[in-house]
Write a structure and sequence with these properties.
homodimer; alpha+beta; 60s Ribosomal Protein L30, Chain: A; Phosphoribosyl-aminoimidazole Synthetase, Chain A, domain 2; 2 domains; 4-stranded mixed sheet; 14 strands
């Protein structure tokens, strides 16, 4: 019989200690974590830090190109990176349903370990709760992270006329991938989540001295949510050329089939960038050298035409407002 | 009809923004949180920090003397305090079941706000997920925290022969309170959770120069888990006088009725202290001045009699080993 997670694994006693040692310490191994105190004791190189949290409740737990574990690392890492911070330390909390398969949990933990190598971040503290059957659907993971801010002044408040907008990858892949798996849609080719840690490409931009004004990973609400939030926060108009927005043909297919817009689909390793005028080609060239951002595209400019609004120029030369997403497109996408 | 939390409140779009502004910002109000970036940007006074996380899955959500919100603040604050750290900043992540009552959520949020005033900690970043009905039982809350380490060298590895052991309050109140509520046991008097933030009393000890060797809040697994972990980690024997351990008569009653040991019951505002010999009376005097630690008691000493073991002297002068808790006493106690 397959080994399963029991309530006693979350009780704080001997069984919890053995789960923590055999599974979490084995894979997340580092000298800070191994001290096993109530909190990790850390010495930061800089006192300017970024601090963020995210809980992951995605269903299904395993999907094409990743699983909840990979997502839980990349998602929180990216939140730090989007603030110009070098990801340093994570905490990790597992909320597990009684009866969850030990092997599945280990597979998720291994994905977390592998994803951490992409940015060098370390898990230094954790928590394990096991909830009786029916209290939680399989597994939720919370990760919180701290990073050292190495580049100041990235903010949604920073956009001014003339700035240029780029998107680092095709949009909608994660949303379409989860939706296709849930709806059992057969796709001709392999549609994968874009889930990826973005520290390496962003580090390269900052080291090259690119003047980044704003940076945001386009997760829930997708590209549309980010652009609308920026337009509103900075009181500017963002004019986007629709034909420049990279969308995979499989994503277009899923969207047409089910009546969605790819710009509202969640992404998990795709960021929107706002850079100063004249920096866009250099930004493009740098990002093209990284696998996770090689499909980067310059998609628009910041103007004062309709402050607070995002305007989309369609391939047929007409224009329309790209409205902020409303309602709940896809519950449990991340 | 009562207002309810909808899936769209967790979608990342307009409805999420309005929930965040109307509920979370309203009560957690501070200038860092209000910036609404991907991560909070913080300047620490010290680069030596403590970092911890805890997810709260307690059931019932409301109980005598508190609720899941109060618990989520005090629990993470205490994990920082137990490392000699001044609690500074928290992140907070809500995982809410679709249909959860808005008013109940607000009541929980208000408890969180009130509990934060006890230590001065601030919530600076958050996350909201809404899960379709059945995906989560009501509400889970994760809080992660960072604090500035103001007193170095507190550790479970630090116990040496001659050190003195104290417990700051009656033990078992939280566990017995939750259990009584779940089992619908009618108690003659009001048994309340001990849930409390312990920064103020610990700050007073540190300011008075008390040489604290180890400090641990006795949560899951209770007093028994802490003492056994210390004995094992420091390879010492801890000799405890059972008659000195404060236990409320209602807790004794619940334990007798249901066949539990109060030393294994979870606490949420009760800590175990190990101080150097000669410091115990001063420690006692200081802690007696705080409401949350006024029932403090000196309960034992560290020796080399049975290294790795906890020995209990009973009121009948016999001795027995206090074994570490096994299995799952009470699922979802915190």
């Amino acid at each position: 019989m397959s080994r399963k997670i029991l309530l006693s694994h979350g009780g704080g006693g001997e069984e919890t200690q053995s789960l923590v040692k055999e599974l979490f310490f084995k894979h997340f191994d580092n000298e800070i974590l191994l001290k096993m105190e109530d909190a990790a004791s850390l010495v930061m190189e800089s006192c300017k830090i970024a601090f963020t949290t995210d809980s992951f409740t995605v269903t299904p737990l395993f999907f094409n190109g990743g699983n909840i574990g990979k997502l839980a690392i990349a998602g929180t890492v990216n939140d730090l990176v989007m603030m110009g911070a070098k990801p340093k330390y994570l905490t990790c909390s597992f909320m597990i349903e009684e009866g969850f398969l030990y092997d599945s949990l280990e597979q998720i933990v291994i994905s977390m370990r592998d994803e951490m190598t992409k940015s060098g971040v370390k898990i230094v503290a954790g928590d394990t709760k096991v909830v009786p059957k029916g209290g939680v659907d399989g597994l939720f993971i919370n990760t919180s992270g701290i990073g050292e801010i190495v580049y100041d002044g990235i903010s949604a408040h920073n956009l001014v006329e003339g700035n240029v907008i780029l998107v680092s990858n095709e949009v909608g892949n994660h949303g379409a991938c989860i939706l296709a798996k849930r709806e059992d849609i057969e796709l001709e080719s392999e549609l994968k989540t874009d889930c990826a840690s973005l520290w390496k490409p962003v580090e390269a931009l900052l080291q090259a001295g690119i003047k980044v004004r704003a940076l945001r990973d386009a997760t829930r609400g997708g590209l549309s949510a980010v652009l609308n939030e920026w337009a509103e926060t900075s009181k500017v108009c963002i004019e986007v050329d629709e034909i420049k927005i990279p969308v995979a043909s499989e994503v277009k297919g899923v969207c047409e089939l089910l009546g969605f817009e790819p710009y509202e689909f969640a992404n998990e390793g795709t960021m929107v960038l706002c850079v100063e005028a004249g920096e866009e080609e250099k930004t493009l060239a740098i990002l093209q050298t990284f696998e996770e951002t090689q499909k980067v595209s310059i998609i628009g400019v910041v103007s004062q035409k309709y402050p607070g609004k995002v305007v989309l120029s369609t391939p047929w030369k007409s224009k329309r407002f790209l409205e902020p997403p409303k309602g709940e497109l896809l519950p449990r996408i991340c």
